[in-house]
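Trying the structure run again after the queue cleared.
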Amino acid sequence: MISKGNGEEVLDKRIVTAREAAGFSITEAAQKLGFKNYQTLSAIEKGTRKINAHELIMIARLYGRSLDYFFESDVATDPVPLWRKTTKTDVNQVQRQFLSFLENYSNLENLLGLKRRWKDIQKNYDRDDFFGNGFERADKLGADIHNFLDLGSRPSSNLINVLENKLRFKILHLPLKDGISGASLVDNALGVGILINTNDAPWRRNFDLAHELFHIITWNVFTPKEIGNGTTKTRPEKYADIFSSSLLLPELHLLDVFKETVTNNEIRFIDIIELAKDFGVSTEAVLWRLVNLKILKKSQVQKILDNPKFRDLNRIMRQRLYDKDRPSKFPSRFISLACRCLMEGKISRGTFSEYLEIDRAAIDNYLNDAGFVEGNYAKIAAA
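Done. Tokens:
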């Protein structure tokens, strides 16, 4: 049993706070922890029953906390991500998963002495920059960031790699509930984090990633209240959509392909769908981008989108792409950093298994598959 001593009130409060922050009722948490009834967990939280080390480890894992969290007298308040959701869905449980991932990722970077680069993307924008000509500013910002990141002619195929490896964003993919697109966070301690819904179509994920990038760039420009909770299209959310369209569908590259596609000044349904597949975005994004570039009229686009034949053809032609492109939960950079830290003795095997959510017995095979074996760590002289 763990002897709580003078810090017993700290431990009791931490257990309660961690459960509530993770979005679990006491009954739900007790079931997941394997207790016969909720009274056992209730007694632990009230301090009338001692907790053993195994139970505390299970609680820490369920609530997404380090063991240190339960004993430190002074713990910082959790940062609050900016969520994108269309309903008032409770996000506490997935928020704790997201923050736990960012904490683990940040710890690996710190252990290896890696610098943060995310501030390179944040410019000196303020509210005045988006007053009066906000949509034009958002459109130009998308083009500027496209050039700054050197995303090439097909940005969607490069964006996630550039954000993860050039700017060292921490990007997590989770299967989220209906109505939740994802989240973003900028925090001095944790860096930049983006959460993307694995259940969404690949072209939707590309657009969501670009959308969250806008919020990260303008993190200190708009308040969470101005941005809203996703249930309404606020002005900053509209700016983010314009930015995403400009970033992922660069004007010159899009128009070059468009001119080659159109014959006799006519556009076919299949041409729009192929353009969308080529640039890795939705057909709606392509059509509205062409409206913004004054190639098509709003009435034309609305007529196309309302056409059931177009919708059916779009679904049929893109279904295969939806089925085959499912991203892994953890980014490859996160996995590599965890392997490096384990091989260099900076984290324990237990921590490694918790970070990557694998069984400890599978660690050696995991390292071998990833190429992290002792023989590959031979030193060579620097040039």
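The chain is about 55% helix and 5% strand. Worth checking whether this holds up in the mutant runs.
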